[in-house]
């Protein structure tokens, strides 16, 4: 916890987010996306009703995504999820919401939600994902050899 408190991003969050639980969850998701998943252009943005999301790009050329952290112990209704989706669409122009479920042991599981049916990926999108995965794998392989 001492490392967390001393981290510059955490200190910045202390100035903007009053609720300690929410601040901790935002910080954990931010660090996971930046250090583990290597997302680009990460920002923390405030939505209405004092909600905060982490926005960024999973790949340099990908569209911006918004990630909303929730505790795995929290319970919320379909209406609350619908409200979140509509606020994402209004405030961030993003039709997709990624929920980051954070467990007590700091494990994070991500779920992508979208209003309505999700269209299939185009062959071009699938090809780009495969190229990115191969590039990522080759980078990791070179790192350990």
UniProtKB/TrEMBL annotation:
GO terms for biological process: tRNA splicing, via endonucleolytic cleavage and ligation. Residues 115-145 are annotated as: Disordered. GO terms for molecular function: nucleic acid binding. Residues 29-121 form the tRNA-splicing endonuclease subunit Sen15 domain. GO terms for cellular component: nucleus. The keyword tRNA processing applies. Pfam families: Sen15. Transmembrane segments: none annotated. Keywords: tRNA processing. Residues 131-145 have a biased composition (Basic residues). InterPro entries: tRNA-endonuc_su_Sen15 (IPR018593), tRNA_endonuc-like_dom_sf (IPR011856), tRNA_intron_Endo_cat-like_sf (IPR036167). Belongs to the SEN15 family. This is DgyrCDS6885.
